[in-house]
Design goal:
It is found in: Membrane. The chain is α+β, with helices and mostly antiparallel strands and 113 residues long. The protein is 19% helix and 25% strand. It has a single domain (3-110), classed as Flavocytochrome B2, Chain A, domain 1. A six-stranded mixed sheet has the order 1-2-6-5-4-3. Bound molecules: protoporphyrin IX containing FE (HEM). Protoporphyrin IX containing FE is lined by residues 43, 45, 48, 52-54, 58-59, 62, 67, 70-71, 74, 76-77, 79-80, 83-84, 87.
Length: 113
């Protein structure tokens, strides 16, 4: 499970953000339990697999991993980007961000399990 910690955004009260590691995301790689990462956020898309206008197949190729590059390569609309929020579980550990998401560690692009 993800680790909980507080983060202070400006002077607002601490908001709870759940951080996940890629190793945890990787466990959720089946049709019945499908997670992926896009731009540093972790999404549970299990219920969306059959709803995706681009089809289930492309999503199943990305589950359990960082799908940022594929998501951007498909050129998603603003509507598609807004849909993401409803599936969000939390954030990827910042040091595991892929280069495509602004991470310094380009090796994440080749991350595989
Ligand atoms: C939860 C994440 C995702 C959401 C909410 C989503 C949503 C959508 C939506 C609404 C469309 C219709 C076109 C548009 O509005 O842009 C679409 C099309 C498409 N998506 Fe996704 N998508 C997601 C993830 C992905 C990923 C990870 C890939 C590939 C790696 C992908 C590949 C495609 C492709 C190829 C199309 C185009 C289908 C066509 O033009 O016939 N999507 N997606």
């Amino acid at each position: 499970e993800g680790s909980r910690s507080s983060s202070m955004a400006g002077k607002r009260p601490a908001a709870k953000v759940t951080y996940y590691r890629l190793e945890e995301v990787a466990k959720h790689n089946s049709k019945k339990d499908a997670w992926l990462v896009i731009h540093g956020r972790v999404y549970n898309i299990t219920g969306f697999l059959g709803e995706h206008p681009g089809g289930e197949k492309v999503l199943m190729e990305q589950v359990g991993r960082d799908a940022t590059q594929g998501f951007e390569a498909a050129g998603h609309s603003a509507d598609a980007r807004e849909m993401l929020a409803q599936f969000c579980l939390g954030e990827l550990q910042p040091e595991q961000l892929c280069a495509f998401s602004g991470g310094k560690n380009a090796v994440c692009l080749q991350f595989s399990f």
